[in-house]
Design brief:
single chain, 167 residues, mainly alpha, 4 helices, 0% strand
Length: 167
Amino acid sequence: MKRFFKIAAAVRILFILCISIFLGCSNEPDYKVIRQEVVDLHNKVMEDGEMASKYRLMLDTLSRTGLKGIRITQPGIDTTAEQKNIAILNTKLNQVDQDMMKWMQDFVPDIEGKRNAEAVKYFEGERIKIKKLDSQYNQILNESHAYLKKFNLITPSNQTDHHHDKN
C-alpha cells in the first residue's frame, strides 16, 4: 500500500511538473514568420509605388498639356482650380513615396543577437508601419484614379487593380 501512495505521489509531482513546464512555455510566434509577412506586404506596397509613379506621370502630362485640350472640349472647366487639384494629388503621391523610402531605409530585416521576443516585437511594429503605408497608398491611388478617370485618362489598358485585399 505504501508503494501505491509513493507511485501516486510521484505521478502527481510529474503531472504538476508537466503542467508547470507547459504553462511556462510561451506560444510566442517565430519572428521569421512575422518578418516574412512584413516583407510580403512591402513587396505589394512597392507595386503601389510603381502605380503612384504612373499616376504622377499622367497627372504631370495633364497639368502641362492636357488641360489645354480639355478646355476646348469643356469650356467651363476652371483650369486654375484643376492645376491646384493636380498639385495636391502630386504632393500626396510624393509624400507617401518619401514615407516609403524612409521606412525602407530604417527597416532592419536581420535581427542578429536579439532574442525571439525582441525580434517579434520589432517586426510587429514594422508590420503596423507598413500596413499604414499600404493604407496611405490605397487612399491616394484611389483619389488619383478617380481624378484621372474624371478626364477619361484611365482606360482598361492603363488601369491596374491595386487593392491588396483582393490578393
